Amino acid sequence: MEQAPPDPERLLQPAPLEPLGNPDAGLESVVVEEADRPRDEGSGDGTMTENNFWLKKIEISVSEAEKRTGRNAMNMQETYTAYLIETRSVEHTDGQSVLTDSLWRRYSEFELLRNYLLVCYPHIVVPPLPEKRAEFVWHKLSADNMDPDFVERRRIGLENFLLRVASHPILCRDKIFYLFLTQEGNWKETVNETGFQLKADSRLKALNATFRVKNPDKRFTELKHYGDELQSVISHLLRVRARVADRLYGVYKVHGNYGRVFSEWSAIEKEMGDGLQSAGHHMDVYASSIDDILEDEEHYADQLKEYLFYAEALRAVCRKHELMQYDLEMAAQDLASKKQQCEELATGTVRTFSLKGMTTKLFGQETPEQREARIKVLEDQISEGEQQLKSKNLEGREFVKNAWADIERFKEQKNRDLKEALISYAVMQISMCKKGIQVWTNAKECFSKM
Amino acid sequence: MSPRPALAPTVPRLRSGRGAGAGLAGEAQDAREPMGTLGEAGLAAAAGRARTLGMEGECPAPSARSSGLPAGGAGAESPGGDAPLPGSSGSSALLQAEVLDLDEDEDDLEVFSKDASLMDMNSFSPMMPTSPLSMINQVKFEDEPDVKDLFITVDEPESHVTTIETFVTYRIITKTSRGEFDSSEFEVRRRYQDFLWLKEKLEEAHPTLIIPPLPEKFIVKGMVERFNDDFIETRRKALHKFLNRIADHPTLTFNEDFKVFLTAQAWELSSHKKQGPGLLSRVGQTVRAVAFSMRGVKSRPEEFMEMNNFIELFSQKINLIDKISQRIYKEEREYFDEMKEYGPIHILWSASEEDLADTLKGVAGCIDRCCKATEKRMSGLSEALLPVVHEYVLYSEMLMGVMKRRDQIQAELDSKVEALTSKKADTDLLTEEIGKLEDKVECANNALKADWERWKQNMENDLKSAFTDMAEESIRYYEQCLATWESFLTSQTGHHLEEASEDQF
């Protein structure tokens, strides 16, 4: 079956870099922050793995899907599908590939991997997973998760996901990702041990929470709007496409009835009999040709769906930025107010409201020693606050720079992929038209011989 | 003359006369003078029973085939003869209702009346004869060597409102070089009832000839009103076909009632109509016909048994094909409706994209063009295939009627023969009657046999044509779509190659 880009055999080529421990050489677009590198278990030695795994070209494929039964967290029996992930390393010279790793994973593990990546790489537009449940299906197609066609399409989608991660200049180096491909047992525990869930900002999950950002970054605002629009337009397109597919199915299939009736009718006709019979056969061919046509179109729909979900990833990056900005502004505000308090205490004027001030007024002045102590505390806090603000600012700037770099990368990828998808759609239409011409030309010949 | 809603001649569309206020007297249909004066001579000839030209009581040689066969209509002679099947078009409407009821779809016809774009399609219709002369190219009636000397068109439907009723009339223009016509051109207005009358008269006069079918009185299922434009247009075309089929029929074309129908003024027609068997005698005939019908079936000769079998099977199949074809039309329509929405979404998307905008607009353009091609395909279907198939559905009902009538004629003979053998009545009288009846049966059978061959030939040609046209429409449709997508692809891959070469580091 046709694979959405990237193609299944795509070889991973990491950027030319020094073998061990120096991940940032050669990748101009990324500046690795020293402060914040939560990519591994916290050992701090960088994300690169010990061996020269990434130097060789590798192929990743999700080659099989299998139904399994097991026990879930509540010790109830459940059925799920497991997917076989195979990794091959390709020898440079002769192109032969050797199977290096092979293990089974289920969808929930993919989800865990992705959540981990989302938290640890907030500035990256993380590739999306294929849909959990079948949506936008035209009604002849099954919406059942266990349906073999759905499972097959999901297998392809999962493979696509892994290839996307593997070909991302930053994500590909992540150790957890590497372990996902290579360490079957205990991988879940390893991920959880990184403590990434603690880092996850619960505020991000609060979808309704709005953050009043005083100085929003215009670019991110625009990006957010773009993400919204992309999501809205693609889902609209997918919905209408499904309806169009439905109708087209109807048109083709009804013609199949001609086949049967012509055949029956030919029995009573002497001269017309043969022509009718063979014309009927062509009507049957016509009617059944729609199945393949629509199956191909389903892959096109999957390509669009990927970008529908990518839009969500875009919005996630914007949201993280928003949060960062909000935190920054809050910190700045807090610092400013503390400074003012300090000043007031020093000069004796009270401009800002403070509880201490009030109680002082009510219950009497404080002693100069007390005041001095308070000023000292505030000064410490201010100095700390200034440090924090400085680092937050730096963090913010780094985030913006890195995020924007990835967004540019994403944009180019999106334009390439979608253009390719649209062109493949045209190719599909052309093929459908050619088939139609052939069938009807044959039918016409039969009719004219009647 | 009082003003009436006039219509543009090129588009036979109906402007409803309801509420127009101008009430018109019932039968005053003609605003215009006929091209030539009919005169009293013509009227006199039209009076009385239908007589086939110079062939009264004669039976043609049985071996005569389809070409130029003037079958003798024996109906003129026997007052106690067969009655035309009462309300045959009524029964056909009933059958139609049954067929449609089997269809699970509810809103077939709502689709027709709701959508304005369907009207637009009709104005593109090529099958819209504006003059009898243009008919020369359109008529493709088969192997008859006759040079066509009678050209008829049906157009300009107009609605008329009276205090009692509202009805539609159609303009009928006849051009002819025949001597028996007083003039070479006639223009009259007729309403559906008049067509019905004509059909009944023809059936009466030629009980075992295959009379062309009339379009149904009204469609039982659905909310289509009699004054819906599509309905009127479909009916107009069918009526046009009806008259032309009669004109092309070697015997029917010379029928006197037919001539009157084509040429008489409104008042002349009504007075002509009044001459004929009264209602009571017609009732009597009907009763006898029912009594005889069963008998006729039992003694049916072999060849007519075969014919009957064919008719039954054919009827089944053609009805199915009719249903299927209608369903295809409906599915295509729904496909078209969805497609209309599909293209614009791509345009909407292109608004938020830069690099992709061109490609998206290109796709939108292709989809829109394919949409138009679908519309054309649908219109082709409704022009070429649907009316023809439907006409043969009606024909198959007509044929069953013809078989019945033949059986009745035979049954009459058989009953007399039986009476003779049982010596129940006056032998001499019976023998004479039997002699006449035997002739009648032989004529009827021969007429039917000959007409049957002709009908079958027509049927094969018509259906073959219709299906071939359908295939052609489909080929054209796919060719158009192919061209549009291929040109899009060329434009894109051309750019694609350019971009690829730019992107190479």
From TrEMBL, chain A:
Subcellular location: Early endosome membrane
Protein topology in the membrane: Peripheral membrane protein
Keyword Amino-acid biosynthesis belongs to the record: no
GO biological process, one term: protein transport
GO cellular component: early endosome membrane; plasma membrane; SNARE complex
Classification via Gene3D superfamilies: Arfaptin homology (AH) domain/BAR domain (1.20.1270.60), Phox-like domain (3.30.1520.10)
Residues annotated as domain PX: 61-187
Gene Ontology terms, MF aspect: phosphatidylinositol-3-phosphate binding
Chain residue ranges for the region called Disordered: 1-49
Keywords noted in UniProt: Acetylation, Endosome, Lipid-binding, Membrane, Protein transport, Transport
PROSITE patterns, per the entry: PX
Signal peptide start and end residues: none
One of the Pfam families matching this protein, by short name: PX
Cited CDD domains: BAR_SNX4, PX_SNX4
PANTHER family listed in its UniProt record: SORTING NEXIN-4
Function description: Involved in the regulation of endocytosis and in several stages of intracellular trafficking. Plays a role in recycling endocytosed transferrin receptor and prevent its degradation. Involved in autophagosome assembly by regulating trafficking and recycling of phospholipid scramblase ATG9A.
Similarity section: Belongs to the sorting nexin family.
Quaternary structure, from the entry: Heterodimer; heterodimerizes with SNX7 or SNX30. Interacts with WWC1/KIBRA. Identified in a complex with WWC1/KIBRA and dynein components DYNLL1 and DYNC1I2. Interacts with BIN1.
Name of the protein this chain belongs to: Sorting nexin-4
Native species: Camelus ferus
TrEMBL record, chain B:
GO molecular function: phosphatidylinositol binding
Classification via CDD domains: BAR_SNX7, PX_SNX7
Keyword set, alphabetical order: Protein transport, Transport
Superkingdom in the source lineage: Eukaryota
Membrane topology of this protein: Peripheral membrane protein
Residue numbers spanned by region Disordered: 1-37, 54-91
Sequence ranges assigned to domain PX in this UniProt record: 148-269
Gene3D superfamilies: Arfaptin homology (AH) domain/BAR domain (1.20.1270.60), Phox-like domain (3.30.1520.10)
Record's compositionally biased regions (Low complexity): 54-69, 76-91
UniProt entry tagged with the keyword Transport: yes
GO cellular component, one term: early endosome membrane
Similarity annotation: Belongs to the sorting nexin family.
Subunit structure: Heterodimer; heterodimerizes with SNX4.
Protein name as it appears in the record: Sorting nexin-7 isoform X2
Lineage, broadest ranks: Eukaryota, Metazoa, Chordata, Craniata, Vertebrata
Gene name, Swiss-Prot/TrEMBL: SNX7
